[in-house]
């Protein structure tokens, strides 16, 4: 059997037929060497429209609930089951449409819902955890040189209800299938990789390679580019993720254990100090990667600081960069902040700090070590 490759296309990349046909161009160079498995998200913002639809009904449900004074938990459970069925339908359509487009381009293809594999989850509707996946059907299709197009985001509970895996979790479907097949996982987006900041709102720089740990932290703190549950799963099962543009040729970002030295500022050249209760950081603020910003080197940082926040002394800022929430470090952060009072007042309530290695005390080093382990 050829080596398997999972290719996941996000909602923005499958927004219409023209875009899907562009996505398909990404498949042909890989098709001869690999057995391809496609995973798709719902077209564009279909899932949000479905969420809106559900919320219109749910508010009426609450009134009905009060009228009938039924058992709140069981009524909630029934409405969650129905909501997940509705929410999952965006991916069902998308899998069918993508598969039809593949057929139109001359490939043999079959669309699959999560339950057809099946991807068995717990019954935590709306944010279900994967418990077991069978690759039997996918392997049969691969052997027949047929490309399976799997609807992302979907699972099935032990009681045979459709579940969804959580917001943006088609990435998780893709990574979980890749883990089962010992395959790499390509995630195609409308951006060309993971950037130091959201490329649509700031002048970030593309990162060539990134550790699971850094991506996990960034995703957890709001970087929308790869779903947090997917990164966690990839780390656990050692699945290499490549984030690339669906429409451009340039190389993207690799997320793995083999990351290049220059891109790991937060764990190698600097110390992450965990903090608690940080406030949301305005997008124009210097530290945005979701809520994080990673710089490859001092010069990059200085340029960014200079271009984006002229009020802040770049010299002092060199001592400050980043963050993760945790109880132990809060007092410690406040002490550091006092040392750099000018910066602290600039930062106001932003509890984000990162200390370059050369400035770090032993305590800071210990905190860092305990965090990155
Ligand atoms: N650090 C980051 N790097 C790249 N994209 C980011 C980052 N933070 C936020 N984003 C945003 O994440 C979005 C995800 O890409 P998109 O293709 O829209 O997602 P989807 O796969 O869900 O359709 C991008 O449009 C980009 O603006
Ligand atoms: N459509 C689902 C799942 C998903 O992963 O979507 P996307 O890959 O477009 O973020 C959602 O919006 O949550």
TrEMBL record:
Single GO biological process annotation from the record: lysine biosynthetic process via diaminopimelate
EC number: 2.7.2.4
Keywords per UniProt: Amino-acid biosynthesis, ATP-binding, Kinase, Lysine biosynthesis, Nucleotide-binding, Transferase
Taxonomic lineage from the root: Bacteria, Pseudomonadati, Pseudomonadota, Alphaproteobacteria, Holosporales
Organism listed in the record: Candidatus Cytomitobacter indipagum
Pfam families, alphabetized: AA_kinase
GO cellular component assignments: cytosol
Top-level taxon of the source organism: Bacteria
Catalytic activity: L-aspartate + ATP = 4-phospho-L-aspartate + ADP
Domain Aspartate/glutamate/uridylate kinase: 4-243
Membrane spanning stretches: none
Molecular functions (GO terms): aspartate kinase activity; ATP binding
Family designation: Belongs to the aspartokinase family.
Pathway linked to the protein: Amino-acid biosynthesis; L-threonine biosynthesis; L-threonine from L-aspartate: step 1/5; Amino-acid biosynthesis; L-methionine biosynthesis via de novo pathway; L-homoserine from L-aspartate: step 1/3; Amino-acid biosynthesis; L-lysine biosynthesis via DAP pathway; (S)-tetrahydrodipicolinate from L-aspartate: step 1/4
Protein name from the UniProt record: Aspartokinase
Broad class of enzyme this protein falls into: transferase
């Amino acid at each position: 059997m050829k080596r398997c490759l999972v290719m996941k296309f996000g909602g923005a990349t499958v927004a219409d037929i023209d875009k899907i046909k562009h996505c398909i161009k990404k498949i042909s160079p890989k098709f001869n060497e690999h057995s391809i498995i496609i995973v798709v998200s719902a077209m564009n913002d279909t899932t949000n429209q479905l969420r809106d639809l559900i919320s219109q009904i749910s508010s009426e449900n609450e009134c009905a609930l009060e009228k009938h004074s039924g058992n709140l938990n069981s009524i909630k459970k029934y409405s969650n089951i129905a909501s997940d069925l509705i929410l999952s339908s965006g991916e069902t359509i998308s899998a069918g449409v993508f598969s039809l487009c593949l057929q139109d381009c001359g490939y043999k293809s079959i669309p699959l819902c999560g339950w057809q594999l099946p991807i068995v989850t717990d019954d935590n509707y709306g944010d279900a955890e994967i418990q077991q996946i069978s690759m039997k059907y996918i392997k049969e299709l691969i052997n027949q040189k047929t490309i399976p197009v799997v609807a992302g985001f979907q699972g099935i509970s032990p009681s045979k209800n459709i579940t969804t895996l959580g917001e943006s979790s088609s990435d998780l479907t893709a990574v979980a299938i890749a883990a089962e097949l010992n395959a790499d996982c390509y995630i195609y987006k409308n951006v060309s990789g993971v950037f130091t900041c959201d490329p649509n709102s700031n002048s970030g720089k593309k990162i060539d390679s990134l550790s699971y740990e850094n991506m996990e932290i960034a995703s957890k703190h709001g970087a929308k580019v790869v779903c947090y549950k997917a990164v966690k799963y990839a780390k656990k099962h050692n699945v290499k993720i490549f984030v690339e543009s669906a429409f451009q040729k340039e190389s993207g970002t690799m997320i793995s254990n083999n990351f290049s030295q220059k891109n790991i500022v937060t764990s190698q050249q600097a110390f992450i100090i965990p903090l608690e209760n940080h406030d949301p950081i305005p997008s124009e603020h210097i530290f945005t990667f979701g809520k994080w910003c990673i710089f490859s080197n001092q010069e990059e940082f200085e340029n960014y600081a200079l271009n984006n926040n002229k009020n802040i002394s770049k010299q002092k800022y060199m001592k400050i960069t980043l963050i993760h929430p945790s109880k132990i470090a809060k007092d410690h952060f406040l002490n550091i902040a006092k040392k750099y009072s000018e910066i602290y007042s600039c930062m106001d309530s932003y509890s984000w700090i990162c200390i370059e290695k050369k400035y770090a005390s032993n305590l800071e080093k210990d905190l860092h070590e305990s965090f990155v382990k």
